[in-house]
Amino acid sequence: MSDINADLHGNAPDKSDVALLLIDVINDLEFPDADRLFRHALPMAHQIVSLRQKAMRAKVPVIYVNDNFGRWRSDFNAQVTHCLQDDVRGKPIAELLRPTEDDYFVLKPKHSGFFSTTLDTLLEYLGTKTVVLAGMATNVCVLFTANDAYMRDFYLIVPADRVASNDEQQNQYALEQMRTILKADVRPPAEHSFQPNPNRKE
């Protein structure tokens, strides 16, 4: 019997031990103190480009985990269009990291990508065991998402140069918390590959 869902996802990977989560990278950055975040986020975005390309070559699914900006009727495509076409601070980042038609997306109402979203269901469908987190802000949405991923027994990779915060000291503190408490691998991507946790027991 043929799989009726065989062509459902086009070229998007529909089974993968590893998934790349891009957190809040489609963001207009039009809020108080966003100029401080932008200074760190733009260099981060340039680094994420290579990480995303590496994921695509490895056939690792890319999932945009994005804030709904408090608008329960908002949709991801509308946010992408807004960030690309309007004169907003976050436009250069959106231009670097604009999604493709093969990417997945999840809209979140709060800090964690898992809270009241379909991320759990999507990762279960993909068969994912390892999540690679990149985006902003390290000490808020990345950290909250990492906490919830750890509670669900995912192995965590959070490359230190692929996340950003308003403040470098808070950024480093959040990374250290993820490294020590959540057992996250925070090394740059050049030091590891998109492979499942080698120490994970089935």
Describe the secondary-structure layout.
Layout: E1 18-23, H1 34-57, E2 62-67, H2 76-85, H3 91-96, E3 104-108, H4 119-126, E4 130-136, H5 138-151, E5 155-157, E6 163-164, H6 168-180
Helix pairs in contact: 5-6
Structure notes:
- This protein is globular.
- It contains six helices and six strands; from the N terminus they run βαβααβαβαββα.
- The chain has helices spanning 34-57, 76-85, 91-96, 119-126, 138-151, 168-180; strands at residues 18-23, 62-67, 104-108, 130-136, 155-157, 163-164.
- With 202 residues, the chain is of the alpha/beta class.
- Strands 1, 2, 3, 4, 5 and 6 form a six-stranded parallel beta sheet that branches.
- The two termini are 29 Å apart.
- The chain has one domain: Isochorismatase-like (Rossmann fold, 3-Layer(aba) Sandwich), CATH 3.40.50.
- Helix content is 37%, strand content 14%.
- The longest helix has 24 residues, at 34-57.
- The model has no long low-confidence stretch (mean pLDDT 89).
| Quaternary assembly | single chain
Instruction: Give the class-level CATH name.
Output: Alpha Beta
> What is the CATH topology classification name?
Rossmann fold
User: Whole-number average pLDDT?
Assistant: 89
User: Count the strands?
Assistant: 6
Number of domains: 1
The radius of gyration computed from the alpha-carbon positions, rounded to a whole number of angstroms, is 16 Å
Q: Bin the helical content.
A: 25-40%
Series of secondary-structure elements, N-terminal to C-terminal: EHEHHEHEHEEH
CATH architecture: 3-Layer(aba) Sandwich
- Report the end-to-end length measured between terminal Cα atoms: 29 Å
The fraction of residues in strands falls at 5-15%
CATH homology superfamily name: Isochorismatase-like
- Structural class category: alpha/beta
Give a short account of the largest sheet: 6 strands, parallel
The backbone outline, from C-alpha atoms, is globular
Our count of helices gives 6
Unreliable stretches covering 5 or more consecutive residues: none
